[in-house]
Amino acid sequence: MSAEIDRYVERLTAELRKRGAAETRFVEETRGHLADAVEAAQRRGLAAEDAEHEAVERYGDARTVAAHFAAEKDRTLHWILLGAAVALGLAIAWVDARPHWDDAGITAGMLLLSAGFLGLMGPRRPWLWALGIGVWIPLRIVVHAPSMGNVLGGLAILAFPMAGAFAGMAVRRVTDHASSISRL
């Protein structure tokens, strides 16, 4: 490989790390695509140096490519986490609705911990994970007995998954920051 392609791959790797999306497979695929583009340009008659420059230019700015890859990766992760949040929330609400279940502390703890885990996994949208997990119990309460007290109580219940999700987000950001400092 050429020095220009190696520099590009190094910039791309650094940009991916900044976004928490450093993927060895993606970087190696990029290197392969660039090598293929250089070969194709040389077959068209370009000199090696010109072919490398053209390949890098056509592939795009490393910052833009990394941002696009990270956004696509995050989109998939967010759909998975949203599905998990809804499933966890429904499961917790189902257990809480059982006739002989009378342990609000365990229910609150499960709301807090499950939202905290999802906030740790997906720190960009903790409010969404908290709502996906926590909305089901207040919704059930308000639907069965609509009153201002139940609405306010439902909002109080939402405080547990909100606190957990934002705590998970904070832990993730602190650990990401610490690991980025240790790489320096």
Describe this structure in words.
It is a single chain. The chain is mainly α and 184 residues long. It has 2 domains: 58 residues, no CATH class; 110 residues, no CATH class. Helix content is 84%, strand content 0%. Helix 1 runs parallel beside helix 4 and helix 5 runs antiparallel to helix 6. The longest helix has 36 residues. The model has no long low-confidence stretch (mean pLDDT 87).
- Taking all Cα atoms into account, the compactness measure Rg is 24 Å
Write down the domain tally.
Answer: 2
Assign the structural class, choosing from mainly alpha, mainly beta, alpha/beta, alpha+beta, or little secondary structure.
mainly alpha
Strand content: under 5%
- Biggest β-sheet: count, sense, barrel? none
Order of helices and strands: HHHHHHHH
In round numbers, the mean pLDDT is 87
Care to count the β-strands?
A: 0
Compute the separation of the termini in Å: 26 Å
> Poorly predicted ranges (pLDDT <50, ≥5 residues)?
none
Number of helices, counting only DSSP H or I runs of 4 residues or more: 8
Shape: elongated
Helix content: over 70%
Which key terms come to mind for this protein?
single chain; 184 residues; mainly alpha; 2 domains; elongated
